[in-house]
Amino acid sequence: GAFMLWLGFAAAGVFAVANAVICAAAVLRPGWLGVGCLLAVSFFMSMMYPTIFALGVNGLGMRTKTGGAVIVMSIVGGALVPLAMGRVGDMAGVAISYAVPAVCFVGVAVYAWRWSAPEQEELAEEPRLALG
């Protein structure tokens, strides 16, 4: 229902913010701490993608397969972000290049929280969600 949808968006937003903070730590503290941060980023991304995928196909009805295919094909960021990171790394250093995915994670968090509030129709279906 609406609550689970809201919870999914909130979780994706929290994971994205965690990744942005972890990337920022990798930028500010290169070395072993930075390496540990990069491992933590993989952990949060592994939880973030399925959440975003499930939310992206929610409510598509008969177009769920097409919507899922579009989401899978739109993972072009996995090809473009490393190029941008490489360019920034060449110009400013490898540690600084992790600012690129940090900005991307902030974008994901904004997306998650911008659309996280249940709509009025959803609240009408589940009145217990109207907390105030």
Number of helices: 7
Q: Mean of the pLDDT scores?
A: 79
How can the largest sheet be summarized? Answer: none
Helix content: over 70%
Query: What are the segments in which pLDDT stays under 50 over at least 5 consecutive residues?
Result: none
Q: Structural class, judged by helices and strands?
A: mainly alpha
**What is the C-alpha radius of gyration, as a whole number of Å?**
17 Å
Tell me what the structure shows.
The chain is mainly α and 132 residues long. It is 80% helix and 0% strand. It has helices at 2-28, 32-57, 64-73, 77-92, 94-97, 99-114, 120-125. The longest helix is centred in the first third of the chain and has 27 residues, at 2-28. It starts with a helix and ends in a 7-residue tail after the last helix. The mean pLDDT is 79.
Q: Topology of this structure?
A:
Layout: H1 2-28, H2 32-57, H3 64-73, H4 77-92, H5 94-97, H6 99-114, H7 120-125
Summarize, please.
The chain has seven helices and no strands. It has helices at 2-28, 32-57, 64-73, 77-92, 94-97, 99-114, 120-125.
Keyword list:
132 residues, mainly alpha, 7 helices, 80% helix, elongated
